[in-house]
Amino acid sequence: MSAPRVVNLTHLGWGLAIPVLFLSTVGLATIRATDRGIAEQTTSASVPQIERNWLSRTYHAIGPLTARQALYFITGIGLLFLSLWPSYQRIGRFAYLLYGIVIVLLLLLVLDRYIDLPGVPVRRYTRRWIQLGGVFTLQPSEFMKPVLVLALARYLRFRSSYRRWRGLIPPFLFTLLPMVLILFQPDLGTLLMLLPVLFIMLFVAGARLRHLLTIVLFGCATLPAFYFYGMADYQKKRIQVLFKQSVADERWHMNEGYQLRQSKIALGTGGLTGQGYGQGVFVRYDLLPDEHNDFIFAIIGNQWGLIGGTLVILAYGIIVLCGLEVVTVTNDPFGRLLAIGVIVMIVVQALINIGMTIGLAPITGMTLPFVSAGGSSLWANFLGLGLLVNVAQRRPMLIANPPFEHRDD
User: Is 87 helix (H, G, I), strand (E, B) or coil?
Assistant: First the structure.
């Protein structure tokens, strides 16, 4: 049965849309609260001319960072509806092309290490962004997440070769190639994202569990070598923070362990109901680095307490439950893999971010989906959500065996 060509607003998937709108609203409100200190630090010399003209009209109203995030949010909604217009099966025809485009963008960032390319800013000794005009920046590694899901779902949909060792090579190459390129930026957070997406999609597709567990054990055995020879010194310090956070050395807590210590204090002082919106010393005096992006969950807990943090976690839980409902009722193998890949993409990112905020995961520069400041992250997550809703809208009948059931099970 052919898929409809128009967006069916009556089956938009409100179980997915409502928690996402809630998370985005909480994110914008929290960014607005923290935008007071950031706005004061913004100088005309550090902002391009085009952006200064735009910021001058919105600075006194909501602040530059909030205005920029609101613009990313509005355009992200547009990208969501754009991804709903064609059927996900039609989008899947361009999966490899989109994958190739993002790979080329990642290669440009690697090339900038050796040739100074225009439009590639260096921030904190990393090359992750491509400047688009004076307002927008593009982070290719963020878009690799939904694109990789799309490419893997396209490859795995009608195959069974991945049930043998040799058949696992192509999907792993699909994933390891962008991982190597992202390592040059470097962006450890995205590296932690891609492998869980691959393993869960392979498991849902029917790959043998013993094969996957063997690979996981082998990967764990190589972690010490990667730590000593594949990580920069500042990345090693971030790993060390995870294991040294309970030490009594005050000097260490004021240096390497400062960010995590401040995050835990912000969460702890929030109590049950929080300090109040825009209140508290952490918001007023900018005591937590990266409070508007990587550590925004700590500010949410500080302002709205345990109740606010729990509501944010529940919103992600609703997204997971609604997404799993889409997976279970979708007979099309491509749609099922696409849906589960998007769910893993969102939930793993949320788990890593919240985990590093409370000291259960290393600090990796991972944003909180739909909440943290960051245009590329917001766009990529909205594109992923659009693909998930697209699958929910279009569930074609499949006159064949149930997907991913193999005779050698």
Answer: coil
Q: What is the reported pLDDT for 10? A: 41
Whether residue 344 is contained in a domain is answered as: yes
**How many other C-beta atoms can be found within 10 angstroms of the C-beta atom of residue 288?**
24
What average pLDDT does this structure show over 348-366?
88
The tally of domains found in the chain comes to 1
112 assigned to some structural domain = yes
Gap between the Cα atoms of 254 and 238, Å rounded: 14
Token representation of residue 236: 């090693």
Q: Does residue 236 fall inside a structural domain?
A: no
The encoded tokens of residue 170 equal: 């192509």
pLDDT band at residue 39 under the 50/70/90 scheme: very low
What value does the mean pLDDT of the chain take?
A: 82
Q: How confident is the model at residue 8 (pLDDT cuts 50, 70, 90)?
A: very low
Three-state DSSP state, 214 = helix
Given a contact cutoff of 8 angstroms between Cβ atoms, the answer to whether 312 and 298 are in contact is no
Q: Is residue 230 part of a domain?
A: no
Q: In the structure encoding, which two tokens stand for residue 137, read together?
A: 């920046």
Residues 306-331 as b/e (b if ≥16 CB within 10 A, e otherwise) read eebbeebeebbeebbebbeebbeebe
Paired tokens of 231: 């990580």
- Cβ(70)–Cβ(54) under 8 Å? no
The predicted-structure confidence for 198-257, as pLDDT tens digits, reads as follows: 999 999 888 888 888 998 898 888 888 877 777 777 777 778 777 877 777 777 777 777
Query: Can you give 36-71 as a three-state secondary structure string?
Result: HHHHHHCCHHHCCHHHHHHHHHHCCCCCHHHHHHHH
Which structural domain range is residue 196 located in?
A: 9-206+259-393
Stated pTM of the model: 0.85
What is the distance between the alpha carbons of residues 90 and 296, in angstroms, rounded to a whole number? 37
Strand 130-132 and strand 136-138: the pairing is antiparallel
Q: Are 271 and 392 in contact (CB under 8 A)?
A: no
